[in-house]
Amino acid sequence: MMESQAKIVGGAPEMIESNKKYLVWNNKGGVGKTFLTYNLAVEYAIANPEEDVVVIDACPQSNVSEIILGGNGTGEENLNNLRDRNATIAGYIKERFSNSPLSRLGNESSYFVRAYTVNDKMPENLYILPGDVDLDICSRLISHIGSSPVKEAWKKSRSLLVDLIASFETDKNVSDRAKTFFIDCNPSFASYTELGVVASNRIIIPCTADAASIRGIKNLVKLIYGVSIDKSEQDEMFLDFNKEANQNLITLPKLHVFVQNRSRTNERDAAKAFKSHAEEIKRITIDLLKTHPHLFTDEKLDERVKNVKDGNTLAAIITHEGSPLSKLQHKSYTIYGMATQANKAQIDALETDVTTVVNCL
């Protein structure tokens, strides 16, 4: 990939457009979003050693941070150490609010952690901007900055993550090679979720074959783009973000791929309701491609809906060990004092599905 120089606007560099920035989000919880983000980011980093890969944990639960920083126990301890130093995404937002609400601090790159230095199981080209439970508090700080009478206050308040990313991309102490970002967001459309939307240029939508997940997809399209899939009357509250983004000339991210997570291993045994919901997700995608093709990335993918099998016990092992999926072995792992078996067939099946998604990123 050819290197791209960042534009300088008002003395501060903008984000490098050629770098891919994936928002992993659905306006619905329980769809395996964090586990998917972890697997895609880590396996993408392993498959693309010539790039830097960055995970941004924009979820107060901070689960992806704990896995990357060492897994259960160790990862939590390492994350707490970073929180104590305010070296997290929430730490940055709080510092901006206190000292420089509308302009960069100059130390943005220091908030990114090279994962390998904390957890040597991680690929050397993986970085993390750690999450923080205080993000919920930060939601109010972001809104307060955005309500300032200063010109473009809303845009600047929603560009805090843009400032972090752009500074990291252009930091001369970090390699100038291509960088790919994965932003793990909370299911709610809080103001800190808006930071992720504004900073991204592509969206991966994790979903499950159920009615609630389908509603989440419809809400996502309505909240970000102001488009009603059902062509129902729009509630003005749903349009607030889209209106502000358009007024502030913000380029919105494009839909890239839907990942049907936790799919049944054997579809012949799936219930009729499960099948009908899975078909509904495909129908929504096809209809959107026909009626609103401009909402999608330009890539000619053979299928916009991918399937990733449920990790089952593998998810528990990976979360506990803080280890890449592709490095798991067919053996028994000890989790909280109990033996848990990782089965080769199960590892291979999940790895194949994850690789299929990674290959289209």
UniProtKB/TrEMBL annotation:
Gene3D superfamilies: P-loop containing nucleotide triphosphate hydrolases
The AAA domain, residue ranges: 24-227
Superkingdom as given in the UniProt entry: Bacteria
A Pfam family recorded for this sequence: AAA_31
SUPFAM superfamilies: P-loop containing nucleoside triphosphate hydrolases (SSF52540)
Name of the featured protein: Nucleotide-binding protein
Organism: Brenneria goodwinii
